[in-house]
Design brief:
Strand order of the largest sheet: 1-2-3-4-5-6-7-8
Radius of gyration: 29 Å
Number of domains: 3
Strand content: 15-25%
Distance between the termini: 68 Å
CATH superfamily of the largest domain: Aldolase class I
Largest sheet: 8 strands, parallel, barrel
Shape: elongated
CATH topology of the largest domain: TIM Barrel
CATH architecture of the largest domain: Alpha-Beta Barrel
CATH class of the largest domain: Alpha Beta
Helix content: 25-40%
Length: 536
């Protein structure tokens, strides 16, 4: 990072990603070495300026990661190692953590140091002067040997409010030692934007090196605090993809980046890279083994979804009525959800999406809406089951052919010994064009067995079904006060390697509800495939 000139606020914002360290410290996330390498390359391709890889030498995984990561041919991102200032009463040259940073092969390091007097007295148990020496010695030692050294002023805001004199001396010591950027950390995540802005405004004139912000989300204000710091002069923002991090997480870069670029006119990444933001978000979520948050701003599945009839009607006339940015700007897309609060506008837009012409049948939109509302009274929900809703629409328009008839099915679950898992088997008898097929199949549970048996019976007539796989299966008990006798709603996600689709079923019997969703999944695939693919 370049030294700032005077107090000019005209600057490009520098992105510093700490997903590989802070994200890995989340309660339910544990990246493998391979995960970290793949994420590093993804973030580099996206356009991150710095990617923090973690603590070199902290564990065998991170040691192996740095050994391989430093050999990657990164296009944009600078791989950064994280560490602490030297230990008390030990020279920087002999501190094991600092020596490990040098051995890692990186050219950039970030050191965290104590700036809150509470930590100096209670955690380190050293004098204020020794704490300043620890900061100064560590940074100057690394600065002589690396290209860039950043200083994370841990608990800066708490420290500034408790003892501003010592806290300011800490960051001035970092500046004197040659730090390229001083990052003000809201480590406990307790700041609010107005107070944070006031502090950054007071500190900004007191140091000449660039300032950064590192905000945690314990008050759900990490993004707001990060943007507030930028407005007061910060040029580096630290955060994580999807806001992953310890406790309540860190500033979510998937919200910070588009807010800076699209709302505050502060460039971060090229426009074409911003259009891959949602893809980047989902990529990291997949490797973190986390379900993407549908409500996540900008990149969530529902970020540009419209359900109410008034909303849909307005958006179809002018998207700006209910959308703050074009969804395509961040790689997302507009969705119209159907439910009992939907109007004819929603039905019309869904028909366009499916390539259906409602004008060909008088009263079709009203019929579809009435049918949908009747089904929703029974417990069906179509917001997450577009394939089932498309089938419902096609049935109303007389465009849903009957591919097969069920003669009957049977599902058996058997547990033979206490220590053995249950055994599941399903038999299915179906009729296609007067020909009856009777098959049986095993599975990992009754629903999987039923799915296998159904497709096995139909593949003789429809070989295109061989590519279909059950991707996800969800069950929800519908409130009725009847306990185990309640109705259940089953949502199934299916895929064929090229696309995925969702279907729904409802019944008091979980197998029957699953059967409904499975049949919809199969029939949707058959509707999407050319008729010529059917075996004679």
């Amino acid at each position: 990072m370049k030294k700032r000139k005077g107090s000019s606020r005209a600057r490009r914002i520098v992105l510093y990603d700490s997903t590989l360290r802070e994200g890995d410290q989340s309660a339910h996330i544990n990246f493998s070495k391979e995960d970290k390498l793949r994420i590093l390359e993804k973030l580099d391709d996206f356009g991150m300026d710095y990617v923090e890889g973690g603590w070199p030498g902290a564990n065998p995984k991170d040691t192996a990661f740095f050994q391989e990561a430093v050999r990657l041919n990164l296009k944009q991102a600078k791989l950064t190692a994280f560490g602490m200032t030297r230990r008390p009463e030990v020279t920087a040259s002999r501190d094991p953590g600092i020596r490990t940073i040098l051995r890692s092969g990186v050219r950039v390091a970030t050191l965290v140091g104590k700036t809150w007097d509470l930590h100096v007295k209670e955690a380190l148990r050293v004098s204020y002067e020794e704490n300043l020496r620890m900061i100064r010695d560590s940074i100057s030692f690394l600065k002589e040997r690396l290209e860039e050294v950043f200083f994370d002023a841990e608990h800066f805001f708490d420290g500034y409010m408790a003892n501003p004199e010592h806290t300011l001396r800490c960051i001035q010591a970092a500046e004197e030692a040659g730090a390229d950027c001083i990052i003000l950390c809201d480590t406990n995540g307790g700041m609010i934007p107005s107070r944070l802005r006031q502090i950054v405004r007071e500190v900004f004139p007191l140091v000449k090196v660039p300032l950064g912000i590192h905000a945690h989300n314990d008050s759900d204000l990490a993004v707001a605090n990060s943007l507030a710091a930028v407005q007061e002069g910060a040029v580096q923002i630290q955060g994580t993809i999807n806001g992953y991090g310890e406790r309540c997480g860190n500033a979510n870069l998937c919200s910070v980046i588009p807010s800076l670029q699209l709302k505050m006119n502060m460039p971060c990444v090229p426009k074409e890279k911003l259009r891959t933001l949602r893809e980047c978000s989902r990529f990291v979520a997949e490797l973190a083994n986390q379900i993407p948050d549908r409500q996540r701003p900008y990149v969530g599945e529902n970020a540009f979804s419209h359900k109410g009839g008034i909303h849909v009607s307005a958006v179809t006339k002018n998207p700006r009525t209910y959308e703050h940015i074009p969804p395509e700007a961040v790689g997302n897309q507009r969705r119209f959800l159907v439910s009992d609060v939907s109007g004819k506008s929603t039905i019309g837009e869904k028909a366009k999406q499916f390539g259906l012409d409602l004008k060909g049948k008088k009263g079709a939109a009203q019929e579809i809406m009435d049918t949908m509302k009747d089904m929703e009274k029974k417990g069906y929900r179509y917001e997450g089951a577009d394939a089932s809703f498309e089938l419902l629409m096609k049935k109303a328009l007389g465009k849903r052919p009957k591919f097969f008839n069920l003669v009957g099915f049977r599902v058996m679950d058997e547990k033979r010994e206490e220590r053995e898992p249950p055994y599941s088997e399903a038999t299915v008898m179906i009729e296609v064009d007067g020909k009856v097929e009777h098959t049986a199949a095993e599975g990992e549970g009754p629903v999987n067995a039923l799915d296998n048996a159904l497709r096995k019976a139909l593949e003789k007539f429809y070989p295109q079904l061989r590519s279909v796989r059950l991707v996800d299966y969800k069950v929800r008990v519908l409130p009725s006060g009847e306990g185990t006798g309640s109705h259940v709603r089953v949502l199934i996600q299916s895929g064929d390697g090229k696309r995925e689709w969702s279907t729904v079923g409802v019944s008091y019997n979980i197998i029957e509800a699953s059967w409904q969703a499975l049949v919809d999944a199969v029939e949707y695939k058959l509707l999407m495939e050319p008729k010529s693919s059917r075996k004679a």
